[in-house]
Amino acid sequence: MSQRFDLILRGAIAATPNGIAPADIAIAGGRFAAIGRVEGSAAEEIDARGLHALPGVIDTQVHFREPGLMHKEDFAAGTAGAALGGVTAVFEMPNTNPNTVGAAELADKLARAKGRAWCDMAFFIGAAEENAADLGELERLPGCCGVKIFMGSSTGTLLVADDDTLESVLRHGRRRVAVHAEDEARLRERLPLAKESGDVATHPVWRDEETALRATRRLLKLARKVGRRVHVLHVTTAEEIDLLATAKDIATVEATPQHLTLVAPDCYRELGTLAQMNPPIRDDRHRQALWRAVTTGIVDCIGSDHAPHTREEKARPYPTSPSGMPGVQTLLPLLLDHMAAGRLSLERLVDLTSAGPARIYNIASKGRIALGYDADVTLVDLKAHRTIRREWMATKSGWTPFEGKEIRGWPMATIVRGQVAMREDQLLGSPVGEPIRFGETLASEPE
Length: 447
Known about the structure:
It is built from 14 helices and 17 strands. By secondary structure, the protein is of the alpha/beta class.
């Protein structure tokens, strides 16, 4: 008797732990049920010949602005953009209003996302002096992906600027901690440079290489002291790359598509404050260092740092203009285009966008096309030619810094636990996102 499945992808070129090769992929009960030559039938079949089936893309850094800042973005629009861009799971940041610093705020976000998210979601707890002692308990709550530390560039109580508070945060908990590493004291000291110039091209001068390097040095010293693994977000400088290459015992590294694609001073001249983000887009010396870090394995994952603001907000005079840009929907298209240009292999792309995030954060049952895993699939056409247009963007902010950019390679379908959320640039059905699950809490000793 032939087996009956929920969904079969026929003839895809599948990126599995065994390599990249043609295979049928059968899904049942939201999990991968058969891979290879699949005999049987399904309630739905997709002809995937000529398309590559990648493990579902996981974006581990997004700001969806809910609650409190929903004129910029919300869970419905942000996850719609994720699904349209081939992303099957996201980690959302805690600097909302109110900040996500406790069990009540986390529960509120989980409730808000239920029935509205087009992809799976998990939420960071923000570290602050007042909740440091509770972080070990908070990080284990269902739906929490871990603790996020802002060493600089934050608002309100989420700022962890001094070493005593930083050490206290690192001592409470066991999971890997995500860190925005910019030195707050140096930022305050150099702020007059930005105010006096009023020119957004000064952004990487104000927030210079030393600002990032000083914070990363402090972080690594304390992480080693207490034996806590850290994940350094959106690394931007050649100097940090050199340092982090010697710290793989304790630290993992994220880069963003923006820092790998845009370059100063051109981006500021062409985009103005639309190119403003923290840490800043820097010159080509740093971009080339990031690409070397990608090709040599120093970078462990790519996150979008999707951080939308309205065009009206971005039009404020610098430096009162807010930092951040939309990115979750363009993460995969940009990386596919870089792959087409020969800057990284398909295997490396998969590691940076699915296997790497799963490994860093100990995500349960995601990150690979393998029997028993969540049936998250991103179907891509490596030969497709598209142009990024704001009309395609789902973000409530209504813009992208990559408007008009021609892309080779495009997401054609997004499948979340066996359910087709997007096909050929159209959202299908209803939002099916659920809280992401994580494996047992790992020991606190460095890897």
